[in-house]
Amino acid sequence: MSAPAAHHYTSTGLDSRKVAIWAFIGSECMLFVSLISTYLIYKGRSRVGPFPHETWVDPSSGHHFHAILNIPVTSASTFTLLMSSLFMVLALAAVQHKNVPKHTRSERILGSSKLWLWATAIAGTTFLGFQAFEFTSFVHEGLSIRTNLFGSSFFTLTGFHGAHVTAGVIWLVTLLSIDYKRGLGPKDELIVDIAALYWHFVDVVWIAIFTLVYLIK
Amino acid sequence: MEHDTAHTDSPAAPAHVETHHPGWSVYWKVALILTLITVGEVWMYYVPSIVASRAFVPGLLALSALKFAIVVMFYMHLKYDHKLFRALFTGPLFIAAFTLLALMFLFGHLSAKL
Q1: Candidates A4, A25, A197; nearest CB to B12
Q2: Global pTM value
């Protein structure tokens, strides 16, 4: 592809790919708010447990269910995702400044796009691991997507978010493969920026979910 | 290096659009602030007197909104980017937030508290 053809400018002077990702993120806001709305509408309306913040005793079996949400584990996964956003923005900065000479060891570390892309992908995968652990433990404790309204709305909301994180990790791996193949440089700033915008969006959605689903009783 | 200029020259570009991104030190400070806010949120969850108070839910929502805004402004560079991007993001966000509030009223979650 020739150099001018590689750019996709709109009449505003902005690259159409960046306009598209912001429009996509805007539409994703609506998707996630609809899922969060569904969760909040059904909150407290489940007829049977387990419940997110309260204990419940099954009247038919006498089985005791404790509050199912594990705040320490989710706090750790939230911290991991927040740090992944830091790593992603450092990866973008490293790509932008690839051609700037690096004299010190810290400058070389900060300027390594591979390092920060790996760190972001690993943090994203760790978050998914936390989510898999949470889902598995919930099922073992008696909460599935079919158990009650809380289970249905909770697994749908967090499952959709997890699917977005998975897509983000795959996207990061493709960027890493490009970086290993030919190296990412300032000319690739936009493709990394677009991936970064998606990744940060996934992070801000989790910021909302963490508060609305996990912390507010 | 606190601010950098990132732009692309092209004969096809009808206007020269520059974006200014903050430097590494700003990114680290933002991460520290986000971590401290998260620690504050979790701390609030474990203090019974705060949970029982009327400020618990509004406080958590405010801290969450602050984190959201910080990530969007500094990590997604919306503070520095073109205003069209701001419109593309905040427009649907406001519509979505309005829809959420309307649904909460419709299903009696907020009207019971007012």
Answers
A1: A4
A2: 0.89
Would you tell me which residues 39-78 of chain A have a C-beta closer than 8 angstroms to some C-beta of chain B? 40-41, 43, 71, 75, 78
Q: What angle do CA A20, A24, A26 make, to 5 degrees?
A: 120
Quote the tokens at residue B69: 């805004």
Are the beta carbons of A32 and A164 closer than 8 angstroms? no
Q: Give the start-to-end residue ranges of the domains of chain B.
A: 1-7+19-81, 82-114
The β-bridge partners of B3 are B22
Question: Which of 19-38 (B) contact A at CB < 8 A?
Answer: 21, 23-24, 27-28, 30-31, 34-35, 38
What ipTM does the predicted assembly reach? 0.89
What DSSP string describes A123-136? HHHHHHHHHHHHHH
- Which domains, from first to last, does chain A contain? 10-215 (1.20.120.80)
Spacing of C-alpha A210 from chain mean position: 12
Helical (H) or strand (E) element with A144 = none
Residues A112-151 as b or e (16 or more Cβ within 10 Å = b): bbebbbbbbbebbbbbbebbeebbeebeeebbeeebbbbb
Supply A192's token pair: 């990394």
Among B residues 72-101, those touching chain A with beta carbons less than 8 Å apart: 72, 75-76, 82, 84-85, 88-89, 91-93, 95-97, 99-100
Q: What is the pLDDT along chain A (217 residues), one digit of tens a residue?
A: 444 445 666 677 888 999 999 999 999 999 999 999 999 999 988 888 788 888 888 888 888 888 899 999 999 999 999 999 999 999 999 999 988 888 888 888 888 999 999 999 999 999 999 999 999 999 999 899 999 999 999 999 999 999 999 999 999 999 999 999 999 999 999 999 999 999 999 999 999 999 999 999 8
Q: Six-digit token pair at A94?
A: 């490293």
